[in-house]
RNA sequence: GCGCCCGUAGCUCAGCUGGAUAGAGCGACUGACUACGAAUCAGUAGGCCGGAGGUUCGAAUCCUUCCGGGCGCACCA
């Protein structure tokens, strides 16, 4: 069997050094050390790897760290792939790699991960299908989609799910909006959806005028955005009596939708399906695809809860409360709660209300039992949306007889914003309580902070910003108030901006090609923008930052790729050929030594770090690490590019080496950008 | 009141399970296009890492506490 990641010298060398140190410590000093710390030094002058192990051993051995380090170095001997070890500072042991050997390994590496055998399920996007997607949803989808790509790159089999809450209160609200505020009939709604779906804007406008809807936005999800804002306002306006009636109407509508099989439910289905289709189209513009769309309506109608309820009662996770404020409910103990023996847990989480209906967390427990294959029930499946390479399926009460199998995963990741960490913790707690500890351990709430608007951005967009909000660092987006930046608007704006730049530079390319390049750059800019921040940092959105194409941005990295491609184009050769030629060079050491080559060595080293960063990214669920890695790689290449002129190099061996350096940078940049869902344009 | 997150350069953010002189981008100021395209590069200025204690050979990182900000704590979803 071939090694999983032959090109990753860092990962390989780190493991080798750890193992060697462990052996030496055992054999020569009779020391068993659990974890040997091996780190990457802050500067290349300290070598490529280092360990502060001597500091840790100082107390135990009652000796100065520096002496211990010297003793260890004295017996380390030679290790394949390393040029030597030395003591530095107060007791660091620095390791220097055999640079030529490392370069050859990196150059030859394919970097393909072997299948890990792990089957994971990632749930992301999960937008309520009642309005257009906004920038907050983009962060979710881009984080989720990128993480899917990372898991797949590491060899996992991954199913991508987008959960659709098509029977919730948000859908009910827009149904109320269409039926009772806009006062449309089922037939009229059907006509409107049909006109929008056919793509003929003029038809939608004609109907809009006839039905007295104004303004008539360009797409159906945009219309819903407006209707949702109007109905929210409608609920809050009017007399007290009217408000009560409207609230009653809201919940009556919700219950009809949940129950199904009536006209209101039919309207809800019509609207939510049309909006869902728009969400898929929006996300596809960013290269985001799904495998399966489980819907709440099927979780209800296929009685997932019934099955889960039985299991929960059996395992004792749920108990019936006879006393206190939750009297008459089925409840569960919250994670971390400590309740005295015999006392009533007033703080318990209600799962089944005293009227017998189940709460959101209850339904979520059922759904997650299904995800792990522990429920004993399954959805029906129907094809819903065709991508060029595969079909996206949707849940159905009665599905096709032939269908792929979803669920039954070994590990799951839920990309859900941090405000939902309590309910997520409840679900995990329930799984653990049922004895599914392994599943509970492999349940990751992939949480992230919201995207908010800077006050300046909100004012620029024409929203009323209260005086007290103007001094705040950011203002939360609100679909209810219609307050936010719609995803498609942002994408359009980005494409227009990149198009202007492309037009200025690519005068000889035709219209279609320019548009394609502009889109690639715009999507690259957007995806990178959403990925450069770590998950628990609130993004205060501003067009100035998002529309920036300089510095730490997607286009900066793409530009490095284009530069490398230009070198090979002008040089009449290819990256593959350059790497093949490198193998024929007998002497590399000279090109890698000395201060004037330090930047080249740094670039090779960075190139040899991909799998290490991937591993860290997955372990911490932090795609930002890989985004940063891509940027640093591009930065180091640009550095190299300015310092060494490749095509005019006269020494043929040196030129081959420089070309190979560019080739490896290209290979790494394209690979890592691909993991981030960012395309590498041919020109820009 | 309880829980979670955050506070690092003028601004926006990195800083991995504690480790060597605290980094990047933007902005400001200097410079570099008859070069493989300057969406680039080089340089300068800019930091009691919110405050105070503690643990440690060593703390931006761990613990305690205080201050300042955000978000959760429903028989809503």
**Largest β sheet strand count, sense and barrel closure:** 4 strands, parallel
Please tell me what the overall shape is: globular
What would you call the quaternary organization?
A: single chain
Q: Approximately how much beta-strand content do the residues carry?
A: 5-15%
Query: How many separate helices?
Result: 27
CATH class of the domain at 554-675: Mainly Alpha
Alpha-carbon distance between the two ends? 41 Å
> At the third CATH level, what is the topology name of the domain at 554-675?
Isoleucyl-tRNA Synthetase, Domain 1
The H-level CATH homologous superfamily of the domain at 554-675, spelled out, is Isoleucyl-tRNA Synthetase, Domain 1
> Largest sheet, order of strands side by side?
5-4-12-13
Q: Radius of gyration, Cα only, in angstroms?
A: 29 Å
State the share of residues found in helices, binned by percent: 40-55%
Descriptive key words:
single chain, Gyrase A, domain 2, Isoleucyl-tRNA Synthetase, Domain 1, alpha/beta, disordered N terminus, 53% helix, 684 residues, RNA-binding, 3-stranded antiparallel sheet, 4-stranded parallel sheet
Write a structural description.
It contains 27 helices and 16 strands. By secondary structure, it is of the alpha/beta class. Among the domains are: 89 residues, Gyrase A, domain 2 (2-Layer Sandwich), CATH 3.30.1360.70; 117 residues, no CATH class; 122 residues, Isoleucyl-tRNA Synthetase, Domain 1. Strands 5-4-12-13 form a 4-stranded parallel sheet, sandwiched between helices. Strands 1-3-2 form a 3-stranded antiparallel sheet. A 3-stranded mixed sheet has the order 6-11-10, with no helix packed on it. Helix 2 packs across helix 3, helix 10 packs across helix 11 and helix 21 packs antiparallel against helix 27. It is globular, with a radius of gyration of 29 Å. The chain binds one RNA strand of 77 nucleotides through helix 2, strand 9, helix 14, helix 15 and helix 18.
